[in-house]
TrEMBL record, chain A:
It comes from the Bacteria. InterPro entries: Brnchd-chn_aa_trnsp_permease (IPR011606). It is a multi-pass membrane protein. Belongs to the AzlC family. It is found in: Cell membrane. This is AzlC family ABC transporter permease. Keywords: Cell membrane, Membrane, Transmembrane, Transmembrane helix, Transport. It holds the Pfam family AzlC. The chain crosses the membrane at residues 20-40, 136-164, 170-187, 194-211, 217-234.
TrEMBL record, chain B:
The lineage of its organism: Bacteria, Pseudomonadati, Pseudomonadota, Gammaproteobacteria, Oceanospirillales. The chain crosses the membrane at residues 12-32, 44-64, 70-99. This is AzlD domain-containing protein. Keywords: Membrane, Transmembrane, Transmembrane helix. It comes from Marinobacterium maritimum. It comes from the Bacteria. The keyword Transmembrane applies. The keyword Membrane applies.
Length: 238, 102
């Protein structure tokens, strides 16, 4: 990684506002995903307040959908938290890649900015840094745009969701699964990843059949993760 | 440990999920201020974050009805063709809806 330029880490009100505006187009899509989440949350049996609260406090779509998949009259807390951690562990990498610029900020700002870090604004910020432009405004302002649209979308989804009588006949119970699958298929695809996914899929299925309920998620995640750690990608880090 | 989704249960779960997620948002920056994250750990995290989604979806496809399977298939195909999640999800939902009307 290049040594960070002295001014690239600056974070002014102006830069935050610019970042906010630059992420608005993507945020409109986030509203649609939020609607999907709101719909799914209401179908799963979360109350309106709980659904909005989850989107507000967690603000991480895939993990929220995944938690709904494990939701029921009884929720296995440990499994849900491990699943949320496994899905959101990529934030750890985002923080690590942003560190060269974040280290110049005082701790309050540094961690405050990271509260709204997610895929789109992280990618835009990193793109800006590689072009020698300040990126933290994109990260924070853009994050605020994504966050508010995610909450708004969830709220709209709840609104529509409560009006729908038979969600299953409309295929709406599949929103969750299709969302998660789209995330998988949209990710890095190479022979190594396909093998890792196959191992994750088959170990998940075995655990689903033979191990206690809900353990399949953790078993699959660990199997895939460990394979990835021991069979490392050769070549450059990205 | 299981938590009942009556009363305050969901709030407790949501707060715990929020804390775990916040830890992932802060953790990378925090750890980096002491020691750089190793390549092996990065590879583990990368492989795990895809695998957990695969592990969630696989039983849905195996245990679900044909409508569910068709939905997942339609999403995968649309995603490969368009690389855009929204049309892919819409195609999946539509496929399940149409199939279940038959």
């Amino acid at each position: 990684m290049n040594s960070p330029h002295a001014e690239l880490h600056q974070l002014s009100r102006q830069l935050i506002w610019t970042g906010f505006k630059q992420l608005v187009p993507i945020s409109l899509f986030v509203i649609a995903f939020g609607i999907a989440f709101g719909l799914a949350a209401i179908q799963t049996g979360l109350s309106e307040a709980e659904s909005v609260l989850m989107s507000t406090l967690v603000f991480a779509g895939a993990s929220q959908f995944a938690s709904l998949e494990l939701w029921g009259p009884q929720v296995p807390l440990f499994t849900v938290l491990l699943t949320v951690f496994a899905i959101n562990a990529r934030h750890l990498l985002m923080g690590a890649t942003l560190y060269p610029w974040l280290q110049h900020l005082p701790p309050g700002k540094r961690y405050g900015v990271m509260m709204v870090a997610s895929d789109a604004n992280w990618a835009m910020a990193m793109q800006a840094f590689t072009k020698e432009q300040p990126g933290l405004g994109l990260l924070f302002g853009g994050g605020l745009a994504l966050w508010s649209c995610w909450i708004l979308g969830t709220w709209l989804g709840i609104f529509f969701g409560s009006a729908i009588q038979e969600p299953q006949s409309l295929g709406l119970d599949m929103v969750m699964g299709c969302f998660l699958l789209a995330m998988v298929v949209g990710g890095d695809k190479n022979p190594r990843m396909l093998v890792i996914w196959s191992v994750a899929a088959s170990s998940s299925l075995l655990a689903y059949r033979y191990l206690p309920e809900n353990s399949h998620v953790i078993v699959g995640a660990l199997a895939g993760g460990l394979l990835g750690a021991f069979w490392m990608e050769s070549g450059d880090e990205h | 440990m299981s938590i009942e989704t009556a009363g305050m249960g969901p709030m407790v779960i949501i707060l715990a999920m929020a804390l775990v997620t916040l830890a992932t948002r802060w953790g990378g920056v925090y750890v980096m201020s002491f020691v750089p994250i190793s390549y092996r750990v990065k590879q583990f995290i990368n492989a795990m974050s895809g695998s957990v989604l695969v592990a969630l979806i696989t039983p849905m496809a195996v245990a679900g009805d044909n409508g569910a399977r068709l939905a997942l298939l339609a999403t995968a195909i649309m995603m490969l063709l368009t690389r855009k999640p929204l049309p892919a999800i819409a195609a999946g939902v539509l496929a399940a809806a149409l199939f279940r009307q038959l």
